[in-house]
């Protein structure tokens, strides 16, 4: 009996599907006009590189940045682990953006409204020029990220406690209290690899080694300690970890329970 009922149900489903198919219409391709202007949100290195790439292919680009100057977080980075001059590269990139005839730059700007559909969007941008309505067919979101500001280890209470980016800026400025310090301690994994953020940022270890090597170059007698949970210097960055060890940068493993 169950077999007969199942067969009858299958027949009913088949009949219903055939009946529905009788009323179906074939799908047709529809051509929609596409606005060939692009909007890039975020004027950091990624946003500027993207804007230049699109503009170099002959398309108009609107580049929107919330800060007064282009550059984003890269404005706070002065050198790479390999020793390259980030600020020189950044200045050249900004110059190319401003000089390109197809790139329109809006700084001190925020997006107040976005409407439209695929290929035809309308975005309103508020800046010191007032509210500008931008019509575009594509949008690239390159807003980057902000540095984590810790609440631990007396950060914000003692001016000797700073982030790695803040340390780099002080090294670049030649701050006496930093470059002439007798000792310096870097604590890795602050604010990550915990319950709130259970991931590794992947750049902090290299950033610490970069600053440690720069300080050793300026002041070889400085005692530098890097407290780490796992030292993650990927690929060829391992060479700089060894270099730091050879220059007597002391690496000390710790656990959260410690």
Automatic annotation (TrEMBL):
This is FAD/NAD(P)-binding domain-containing protein. One of its GO terms (molecular function) is metal ion binding. Pfam families: NAD_binding_8. Keywords: 4Fe-4S, Iron, Iron-sulfur, Metal-binding, Oxidoreductase. It comes from marine sediment metagenome. InterPro entries: FAD/NAD-bd_sf, HdrA-like.
């Amino acid at each position: 009996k169950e077999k007969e009922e199942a067969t009858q149900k299958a027949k009913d489903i088949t009949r219903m599907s055939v009946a529905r198919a009788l009323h179906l219409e074939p799908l047709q391709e529809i051509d929609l006009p596409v606005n060939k202007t692009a909007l890039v949100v975020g004027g950091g290195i990624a946003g500027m590189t993207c804007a230049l790439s699109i503009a170099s292919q002959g398309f108009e680009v609107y580049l929107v940045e919330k800060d007064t100057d282009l550059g984003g977080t890269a404005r706070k980075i002065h050198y790479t682990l390999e020793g390259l001059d980030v600020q020189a590269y950044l200045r050249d990139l900004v110059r190319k953006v401003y000089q390109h005839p197809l790139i329109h730059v809006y700084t001190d700007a925020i997006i107040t409204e976005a409407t439209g559909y695929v290929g035809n969007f309308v975005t309103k941008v508020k800046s010191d020029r007032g509210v500008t309505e931008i019509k575009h067919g594509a949008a690239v979101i390159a807003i980057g990220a902000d540095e984590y500001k810790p609440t631990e280890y007396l950060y914000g209470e003692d001016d000797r406690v700073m982030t790695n980016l803040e340390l780099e800026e002080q090294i670049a400025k030649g701050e006496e209290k930093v470059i002439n310090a007798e000792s310096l301690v870097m604590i890795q994994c602050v604010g990550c690899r915990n319950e709130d953020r259970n991931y590794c940022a992947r750049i902090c270890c290299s950033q610490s080694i970069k600053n440690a090597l720069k300080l050793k170059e300026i002041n070889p007698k400085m005692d530098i300690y890097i407290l780490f949970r796992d030292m993650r210097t990927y690929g060829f960055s391992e060479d700089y970890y060894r270099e730091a060890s050879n220059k007597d940068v002391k690496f000390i493993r710790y656990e959260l329970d410690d």
